[in-house]
User: Fold this.
Amino acid sequence: MTPEKHGIYDFFYFDNGIKVVSSRHRRMPAIWNLLSDIGKRSIVINVPVTYPPERVNGIIISGLLTPPDENFVEPKEIKKMLADYKMEHLIVDDLPIRMAAYYNPEKVKKILYEWIESRTKAAIKLMKNFDWDFGMIVYRATDLVQHFLWDKEEVFEVYKKVDEEIGKIIEKFKANYFIVSDHGFYGIKKNVFLNNLLYEKGYVVANKKPSSLMIGKMLTRLLYHMPKNFTRLPFMRKLLFSIAFKEKIIDFEKSVAFCLSSSSRAIICRKEIKEEIIELINSFEDDGEKIMRLQEMYSKNGMSYLVAELKEGYAIMDILNFGKALEKPGKFHFKGEHSKYGIFMAYGKEIKEWDGNASVMDVMPTVLHSMNLPSPSYADGNVIDIFKKKRKPKKVEWQKFGFSKREKEMIKALAKLVK
Assistant:
């Protein structure tokens, strides 16, 4: 369903500062919640924004945005079965992983392999030992390797590894399988530093002077030309780390517009200047061509939330470094960026040959249909025409189809008693 319904637009949100979203920010039931309503069991592994993991009819291992050293499994008792499970981390040899990818791509590939294998081992172990009706596993390695190593052979090697690991699951469990990505990738030829542009035009106010960042920028350029082994010295690791995670320097109270994050490509601005921000971004050109289109997603508390759609070959950077608004990627920047179109594949006894188009919002209705279940009436998307057996898709008021409100309250009360 659309972000307007489920309430999550990004990994971050703004509330007197930039904060990280969690599973508590989701306004609508996830598919595992719907299945829990009707007594079906789910095994959910490494899905982003599932921390803190919910108590459901089944098992959840939370994914991206899970804080270090926090509980990532529900029910908690399952954690003892996952002693060798590897959570994703963004530090390799004391370096941010995007820097490590430049200095030691083979080491980064090895770590991605470990994460891939860990997801598969956990899935097979849980699916063997517990009843389940629905499973969902996210392999993020294919995303990360394209961000960091877009133009390297490691991209193909990681894809082959994921293919092998999915094959292990398919060999062991008879089911309908759906392989989905909500986006594709392209190589980045230039980065758009939106906060530099907004600062230049007077919309962003900084709480640091431009001169205070010049030393860091000079050191970063110097590092590009240093031997790779030099960066492994302890003091150099600390220096690289400090440059990568420099302080936030935007004064959010005084700024009237700013780029929230590169992941959402979003600008938050005061509602009264919305049109001039849209005009500024939509008219921005590179070599005489317009490269961005901004549209409003919603307005709240006098602020507008605007999202940029980019021409292929460009990516958004959210840092403010007082430099140019448009630059070629540096050695420590992402090499690949999300493109609009992803993939959808299905496999199983009930699946026919199909060659068509689909939306990411069609996935949930299609999965529910494969389980002989209707979709909730509020769900966007439609059942994709991939099934051999013709069954008319149905949409229902889920509260009437599943447990009643009173029954859900009774189940929650009983669950507390057995914790």
About this structure: Confidence is low (pLDDT under 50) at residues 235-247. Residues 209-246 form one domain.
